[in-house]
Write a structure and sequence with these properties.
Number of strands: 20
Strand order of the largest sheet: 10-12-13-15-14
Strand content: 15-25%
Structural class: alpha/beta
Shape: elongated
Distance between the termini: 136 Å
Largest sheet: 5 strands, mixed
Mean pLDDT: 80
Length: 654
């Protein structure tokens, strides 16, 4: 018995040592009335009482005055006694009167007979945790107030399925829904019917989920059905473990900005249209002025010729004058087409050094005395891809411009150099030859240089220039795949560079046989001439009949096809620009019925749609007889595989 008692006493001592060693919890005993009966180191540490100061004192002194007045201490003991446990959190008092936030657990202690002998009270100081929770709560509250007070952005949460989980004042302001009207509903309500049908809302969430962000602009719908232009950003929201718990969605109403942008675009479009109309006005005014001068010469000369012819006089000088004016008109048209990049170029491999040597006499004769023309070419110059005739014309125009800039004489230098162009330099990467025409003239200021390639812009006096020389050279260079570059300063002269792509092809062989000799070999052909302009058709037929050919005339594609089915035809000569059926369509229809029929396509607007009748020989308007006859002969010869011209036998429709 003595041994058992000693063992029990030892167990109690160990338990007491365990309790006394705990410093993070206040563990102490109360008697049935709430008087403190024991005290451990933890209670002393964060309540501040020494053991001798608190034993025999009622535990209610740890409660605030408000709690004591409310009877909280007595209620806690009663709850523990009746329910077997009491637990709560609240403010408690230290000895020095300061407060701390405590978690309190009170358990009843009963003897083996079940009689209440006291209470075990465990208190934990949670002040730091409480402070952290309070700080977090205040932070969350501030964030909530911040989000709620934002009115220029709709900021709200979506759950993982896209249902609205929160709603701020900005969302209510420009979407029109109150929080109680929209929370729980799917965010696709804000999208147009077309976007919902296309699955845009689901795609937005999927992109935010898979890529970490979704952003777009588009039309959204308010509660009242009106549309607004919105910028939308959706970000996924994940918990610390990485699990998706929803989406944060920010929407901004950009309707006003969108309207301003559209208004600006419309204003810019109107401005560009006005500029275009001004340019067209200048262009048409210049064309009208120059052609009126030419027509005045033609009409006047022909009128005088008609009067002199009636009197039996010599009319040759009047006809020559009219012909010169007409040829000047044709040249003016060529320059206009070059500027518009609508002329048809005969691109081939050209030796630029040989070309300049070949036109040396023409250049000197055109420029006149008082101006020296020099050339500066390297020993070897690569060949270029260009139209030789148009290149000669461009160089001639540049030389004339240089001459006009040197009123008191000077020097023109025509030079060549090779250049290598890389990506991003405005031209197709590759090798180029730069042909330059430099003068020692007055030069141009920046304002004049900026407008130098505009059509009909000239600083020369009235009647001394068309203002198309530089614009023609500019258009020609671009059509060849190159560019025209001007460099000029007042008093330092001007340099015009024509950049042309290098060609790897062989030089094009040119026939030296005069056109008259070639025409002498042509046999009589039956030619079907087609043009919707009766004047042009009459002239074409007259030129062909004068050469001994028989000519059938048609003013439309439909009539031409009918004549083909009724008559034997050796060559079809057709205009391109005709109503109902153009020349290319007529050629296609004719080839379907008469696959061996030679066809010559004539056009005054020579740049045809890409891929249109690319295999047909062409002749540009206006043309003379010595240009028409060789073109007809070549068309017939090519179709006959290079053999002698023999009238084609009558053909039957397949």
């Amino acid at each position: 018995m003595t041994t058992t008692t000693a063992s029990a006493g030892s167990e109690i001592n160990r338990f007491e040592l365990l309790v006394q060693s705990i410093t993070d919890y206040a563990i102490y005993m109360l008697d049935p009335t709430g008087v403190v009966a024991s005290w451990n180191a933890g209670a002393q540490r964060f309540k501040g009482y020494e053991t001798g100061e608190i034993l025999g004192q009622h535990f209610s002194r740890f409660y605030t005055e408000e709690d004591r007045a409310a009877g909280i201490p007595a209620r806690a003991l009663r709850t523990a006694e009746q329910e077997g446990r009491f637990e709560a959190e609240g403010w408690r008092l230290r000895k020095d009167g300061t407060r701390f936030w405590a978690n309190v657990v009170i358990d009843p202690i009963r003897n083996p007979a079940g009689e209440l002998v006291g209470f075990a009270k465990v208190t934990r100081d949670l002040t730091e945790r409480r402070a952290g929770e309070e700080a977090l709560r205040r932070s969350e509250e501030r964030f909530r107030l911040l989000v709620q007070s934002v009115t220029d952005y709709a900021i709200y949460m979506l759950d993982v399925d896209g249902n609205v989980a929160s709603w701020n004042a900005g969302a209510e302001r420009f979407k029109g829904y109150r929080a109680d009207e929209i929370i729980g509903r799917h965010f696709s309500n804000f999208y147009t019917a077309e976007d919902r049908t296309a699955g845009i809302p689901a795609k937005a969430l999927e992109q935010a989920r898979s890529k970490g962000r979704f952003e777009a602009e588009g039309w959204r719908v308010r509660k009242d059905g009106t549309h607004f232009w919105a910028n939308v950003v959706i970000d996924p929201v994940r918990d610390p473990s990485g699990t998706l718990i929803g989406f944060a969605k920010i929407t901004r109403d950009l309707t006003e900005r969108r309207r301003s942008q559209l208004a600006l675009e419309q204003a810019q479009e109107a401005f560009f249209h006005a500029q275009k109309m001004e340019a067209i006005g200048k262009l048409t005014g210049g064309v009208a002025h120059d052609f009126n001068n030419l027509l005045a010469a033609i009409v006047g000369s022909l009128d005088l010729a008609r009067r002199k012819l009636a009197e039996g006089g010599d009319v040759s000088r009047f006809i020559d004058n009219a012909m010169k004016a007409a040829e000047r008109g044709a040249t003016l048209t060529q320059r206009m087409l070059a500027f518009a990049r609508k002329q048809e170029l005969q691109l081939e491999t050209v030796d630029p050094a040989a070309l300049v040597r070949g036109m040396a006499e023409l250049l000197q004769r055109t420029i006149g005395g008082g101006i020296r023309i020099d050339t500066q070419f390297p020993l070897v110059v690569k060949r270029v891809h260009a139209d030789p005739a148009q290149l000669e014309l461009a160089l001639l125009n540049l030389a004339v411009n240089a001459r006009d800039a040197m009123q008191d004489g000077g020097r023109i230098v025509i030079a060549a150099r090779e250049e290598q162009v890389g990506a991003g330099e405005g031209l197709k990467p590759g090798a180029y030859v730069c042909l330059s025409v430099s003068d020692t003239g007055a030069g141009m200021d920046a304002a004049t240089l900026a407008r130098a390639t505009e059509p009909f812009y000239t600083t020369k006096g009235v009647g001394k220039g068309t203002g198309l020389g530089l614009s023609m050279a500019h258009g020609f260079a671009e059509q060849c795949g190159g560019k025209l570059v001007l460099d000029s300063r007042p008093g330092e002269g001007t340099t015009a560079d024509i950049w042309l792509p290098v060609s790897d092809g062989a030089l094009t062989e040119r026939s030296d046989t005069p056109a008259e000799d070639r025409n002498a070999h042509a046999g009589q052909l039956v030619v079907l001439a087609v043009d919707d302009d009766a004047l042009v058709l009459t002239n074409t037929a007259a030129m062909l009949e004068d050469a001994g050919h028989r000519v059938l005339q048609a003013v439309s594609g439909r009539i031409a096809l009918q004549l083909l089915s009724e008559c034997r035809v050796d060559v079809l000569v057709t205009d391109f620009a005709m109503p109902d059926m153009n020349g290319a369509q007529l050629a296609e229809a004719a080839r379907a019925g008469w696959p061996d029929l030679p066809i010559l396509l004539v056009s005054g607007y020579a740049e045809l749609p890409e891929g249109t009748a690319h295999d047909l020989p062409r002749l540009a308007k206006p043309f003379r007889q010595d240009q028409l006859l060789p073109a007809v002969e070549q068309a017939a010869t090519a179709r006959n595989q290079g053999g002698a011209i023999v009238p084609f036998p009558g053909r039957k429709r397949r």
